[in-house]
Design goal:
about 100 residues; 3 helices
């Protein structure tokens, strides 16, 4: 479990580095990252705090994204393979 957890955190750090070198990171404040959520070709962009990365529910979504996309995300950023409604519900629970 600890090895898997450190792998997820390491992957998260790599994603954060890739966002910092992105040309459109001006609209992503420090301490946040952009994720794309949705099914098929209809993806919506969300900017979430990096503190979400340490939450078990969010890590479950990261593992699902890793299984589906590996580390090659078609949108150029982190793509979360779930519906917008599921992600919005999760984010609202993490916010409180």
């Amino acid at each position: 479990m600890a090895i898997r957890m450190s792998r997820v955190l390491q992957s998260s750090k790599q994603l954060i580095k890739s966002f910092s070198h992105s040309s459109n990171n001006a609209d992503v404040p420090k301490g946040y990252l952009a994720v794309y959520v949705g099914e098929r070709m209809q993806k919506r962009r969300f900017v979430v705090p990096v503190t979400y990365l340490s939450h078990p529910c969010f890590q479950k979504l990261l593992r699902k994204a890793e299984e589906e996309f590996g580390f090659d995300h078609p949108m150029g950023g982190l793509t979360i393979p779930c519906t917008e409604q599921i992600f919005i519900d999760l984010a609202s629970r993490l916010r409180t």
